[in-house]
Amino acid sequence: MTRLVLNVSAVLVFAPIALIQSYETVEEAIELANGTKYGLGASVFGPDQTYAIQVAKQIKCGMVSVNDFAVFYVGFSSGFRISRASADFEP
């Protein structure tokens, strides 16, 4: 049987999924989040709401939720990098 291996964190996915990625440090987590060519939406989860907000502010992304997922996507704002929905996008 052939297995399909896909690095979901490296592709644009419009589906009802949540990707959970492991990391060693918060700095590494921020690098992973910012290290993709996409940047439409992200979520940060953690027990310290204030610290989670500080981390969320460092993620280059159109929408970042804290301890939740996609609840405010109705008020869509443009993303970053190739996910940006703006006419002035430059790769």
Quickly describe the structure:
The chain is an alpha+beta fold and 91 residues long. The protein is built from 2 helices and 2 strands.
General description of the model:
There is one protein chain. The N and C termini lie far apart (39 Å). The protein is an alpha+beta fold. It is built from two helices and two strands. The relative contact order is 0.17. It has a domain of 43 residues. A two-stranded parallel sheet has the order 1-2. Helices cover 19% and strands 9% of the residues.
The strands making up the biggest β-sheet line up spatially as 1-2
Number of strand segments: 2
What is the averaged pLDDT score?
75
Low-confidence stretches: 86-91
SSE layout:
Blueprint: H1 26-34, E1 41-44, H2 49-56, E2 63-66
Parallel strand pairs: 1-2
Task: Label this structure with key terms.
alpha+beta; 2 helices
